[in-house]
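Reading a protein record of the kind used here takes only a little practice. The record below shows the convention in full.

——
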Amino acid sequence: MEKIQFDKLTPEQKRALREQLEAEERAEKEAKKRLSDDYNSLKDEQVKATFNKLKHISISLETEKIDVFNQFGSLISMKKEVYNLTDEQLNIQQSHTFTTSDGKTSVVIGSNVVDRWGDDVNVGIDRVNKWIMETIKDEKDREIIRALLKPNKDGVLKANRVLDLSIEARKRGDKELIEAVNFIQDQYRPMKTSTYVKAKYLDENGVWQWLALSMSAV
C-alpha cells in the first residue's frame, strides 16, 4: 500500500482526506454506540425477566417457609407436653430438630437471634467484678471469670459466655456470685432477626447431607 505524503497533497486532496478520515471516525463511533445500545437493551430485558422469575421463586419460598412453621407448630406444642417444657424453655430454645423414627431424615426450624440485654445488666456485671476483687486472690483465676463477661466486637455481652459463667458460679457454690449471675441472666432480651428451615438426610454412605434450599448452596 502506497504511503500518502500529506505535505505533497493539494488543498483539495487534503480536504478530501480529512473528510474521509472524519467519516470513518464517525462510522466507528456510530458502530460502537449501536453495539452499546444493543448491549444495554439486551441487559435490561434479561435483568427484568430474571428478576421477575426470581421474585416469584422468593415469594414461593417465603410462602412455603410460613407453611412449614405453621405445620410444625402443633408438633412443638406436643413436644412441650411430652418433655414437660415451660414456655420460657421453648422461647429460649432457638431451634427445633425433628427426625423420623428411622433416623434418616430431619427437618430443622429455628430463629437467628442477636443477643440483647436490659438497661440494668451492668448492675449485675459490677456485682460480679466486685465479687472477683473481694473473693479471688489469684490473678489467673480472676481472668478466667472476667473472660466470661468479655463482650463481643460490638460491645455486647455474649449469652453463651454468661451461661458458662452460671455453670462456673454453681460449681463454686458462692451465693453472691450465683445471685449476681442470675441478675445478669434476668436481663437477657434476645432479639430474633430471621427464621429458617433446613432439611437433611442420610445418604447411602451414612453421611448427613443438607438439602440445597438456597441458590448459593446448589
Summary: The chain has a mean pLDDT of 89.
